[in-house]
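Practice problem 4.
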């Protein structure tokens, strides 16, 4: 096993350990708080406190499923799953996304029933003390979980930390409703319970939207795109990097391919492409499955002049995002280039035909060949 592979394996193991440890903290805090609040809610006939307990119990379920998913996702690759099982984390997130709305809908029904048939709450000093403690329980672990997400770049932790902060606001609102009742004898219990239920439902609706987007396959993030291309173009032999494609096999397992432009001969290509692949894997954690090479025949002044003229024609169109891979074959009188067209373009084929006719008007002796690349990264 190479030094780079050992380092990546160690980082992945550390990531799983942090996920499990952070999730356990969340589970213990939420279960204890849910138990106390459920007892207090029933004794004081406070639907808001009872629903807050339900909310905390659902929050304990999320990290529990996260632990199970993390353990399964950490299984070593095998013959049937050579890329590992990292995508299981997306599956567990989807499961959570369907459980949370169910809890919210159930809580909303109970709140509406309480609005129709209100019951006066009976607060005690112990009840209010437990609700106040609930705010602290949410704030302190919540800040820890969110800090873990920021320092270790774990999106799940950042999400759980945000949820914990929202739950602290809900618990504080419950405490405020109790204070209003004790001072003004106005009960906002059922209405606050309905608001809590709506917050739970919204949280459940937002979760699958983000997770399903990741499953469908998202555009390469701009920061990651620039980071990888900067690493690739740091080699003096490489003049540009294009068509970066990343395949996601888990939150921290990316495999991709890229096209690089240079002026080397075929015999010189192998060694620098291997250096590119090793550097990107070691420094950026991405395994490039291929480094395609564009031959940039810019040693010929005539070709350089043709390239500049053609680029001016192509980039004159508003929907053209990028042009690269320009090459002129003098023997066959053919020029070829890759073009990235905005997805918002009303008629991509019409744009390419217009560009082709304008280029051929300037260079009538050359055939123009386009390769349309999709706008999947910057």
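Answer key:
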């Amino acid at each position: 096993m190479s030094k780079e592979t050992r380092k990546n394996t160690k980082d992945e193991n550390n990531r799983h350990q942090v996920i499990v440890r952070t999730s356990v903290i969340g589970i213990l805090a939420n279960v204890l708080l849910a138990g106390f609040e459920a007892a207090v809610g029933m004794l004081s006939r406070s639907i808001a406190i009872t629903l807050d307990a339900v909310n905390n119990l659902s929050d304990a379920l999320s990290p529990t499923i996260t632990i199970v998913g993390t353990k399964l996702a950490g299984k070593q690759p095998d013959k049937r799953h050579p890329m590992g099982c990292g995508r299981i984390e997306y599956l567990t997130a989807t499961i959570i996304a369907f459980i949370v709305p169910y809890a919210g809908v159930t809580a909303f029904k109970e709140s509406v029933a309480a609005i129709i048939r209100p019951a006066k709450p009976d607060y005690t000093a112990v009840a209010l003390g437990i609700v106040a403690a609930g705010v602290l329980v949410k704030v302190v672990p919540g800040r820890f979980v969110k800090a873990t997400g920021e320092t270790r770049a774990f999106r799940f932790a950042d999400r759980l930390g945000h949820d914990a902060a929202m739950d602290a606001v809900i618990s504080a609102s419950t405490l405020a409703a109790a204070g209003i009742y004790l001072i003004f004898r106005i009960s906002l219990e059922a209405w606050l319970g309905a608001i809590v239920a709506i917050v739970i439902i919204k949280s459940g609706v937002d979760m699958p939207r983000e997770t399903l987007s990741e499953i469908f396959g998202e555009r390469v993030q701009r920061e990651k795109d620039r980071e990888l291309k900067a690493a690739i173009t740091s080699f003096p032999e490489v003049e540009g990097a294009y068509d970066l494609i990343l395949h996601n096999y888990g939150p921290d397992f990316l495999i991709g391919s890229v096209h690089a432009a240079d002026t080397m001969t075929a015999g010189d290509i192998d060694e620098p492409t291997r250096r590119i692949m090793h550097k990107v894997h070691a420094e950026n954690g991405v395994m490039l499955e291929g480094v395609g090479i564009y031959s940039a025949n810019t040693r010929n002044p005539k070709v350089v002049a043709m390239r500049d003229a053609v680029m001016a024609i192509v980039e004159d169109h508003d929907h053209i995002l990028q042009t690269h891979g320009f090459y002129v074959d003098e023997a066959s009188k053919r020029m070829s280039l890759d073009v990235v067209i905005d997805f918002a373009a009303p008629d991509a084929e019409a744009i390419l035909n217009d560009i082709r006719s304008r280029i051929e008007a300037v260079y009538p002796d050359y055939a123009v060949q386009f390769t349309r690349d999709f706008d999947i990264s910057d």
